[in-house]
Amino acid sequence: xxxxxxxxxxxxxxxxxxxxxxxxxxxxxxxxxxxxxxxxxxxxxxxxxxxxxxxxxxxxxxxxxxxxxxxxxxxxxxxxxxxxxxxxxxxxxxxxxxxxxxxxxxxxxxxxxxxxxxxxxxxxxxxxxxxxxxxxxxxxxxxxxxxxxxxxxxxxxxxxxxxxxxxxxxxxxxxxxxxxxxxxxxxxxxxxxxxxxxxxxxxxxxxxxxxxxxxxxxxxxxxxxxxxxxxxxxxxxxxxxxxxxxxxxxxxxxxxxxxxxxxxxxxxxxxxxxxxxxxxxxxxxxxxxxxxxxxxxxx
Length: 299
Ligand code: NDP
Description:
Layout: E1 4-5, H1 8-30, E2 35-41, H2 45-60, E3 64-70, H3 76-88, E4 94-97, H4 107-113, H5 125-133, H6 141-154, E5 161-165, H7 172-181, E6 185-189, H8 196-201, E7 205-208, E8 226-229, E9 233-236, E10 244-247, H9 252-256, E11 261-262, H10 270-289
The chain binds NADPH dihydro-nicotinamide-adenine-dinucleotide phosphate.
């Protein structure tokens, strides 16, 4: 058996198309263009690449993007003040503070300052509370992308057993809640879970978010299951000395031999994160103004 490749890159491109359509609908109905403000602190090269991509895709969908670059030694209070200014700016719909922040800055305190109605990363306590209570709000991007890919692969998720491997605030916990919202029966597994392979083998949908290269083996997977690999791990390239390669948390070859569908790394969940961020920016713009969210953004 060979699993289907769940093509997150193609799905994300389609989703960005829907975001562009939604932006054009807001333009024609209200003469309005949503704006995403991105705050980048310091010189971390990976963060610069991420922010560049976020800005590029924001503009491609017809939205406005405002970038605020700050020195790595900016004072905590000044960074929080910048967030406050963006909160108060009526033209800013979404605020994204690129993480991680340089050493010495407390990201929890900065995130706590973001107005939850502009929290397009879905990271504030209020956003987490809204998700937990099933209230309208902005959902974290990567976990939302996982649900979208699973739904695209399987259709209705109701009654499926979803095992989420990992319980981080960023991925595991919100993913579990989002799959629960889809009426899955959810198990959250983590480093203290007993007989992890057996727990994973019971999953119709297996979401791996552990940050351990190729940890999930083929014989941990139920035949025909849908495998969503969130992991992004940089390892030494096995064939090219001195080079690095990206790999997920799932042994891809092993999984492809057993599963029904598998997300590749790269090209699976990764591209969904930015696409969901753009979608959240439009949703934030609509919620704040009391406009209906365009139908093309529902899933
Ligand atoms: P964290 O390190 O915050 O959390 C890892 C989780 O995995 C923890 O809950 C931990 O359990 C669990 N875990 C670690 N080792 C084991 C083990 N041996 N057995 C069982 N469980 C284990 O990572 P994140 O959630 O932030 O990220 C996970 C992966 O996803 C990373 O590779 C990251 O790069 C990637 N990622 C990808 C994104 C994308 O856009 N595609 C976005 C965000 C993250 P415990 O709580 O018990 O310690």
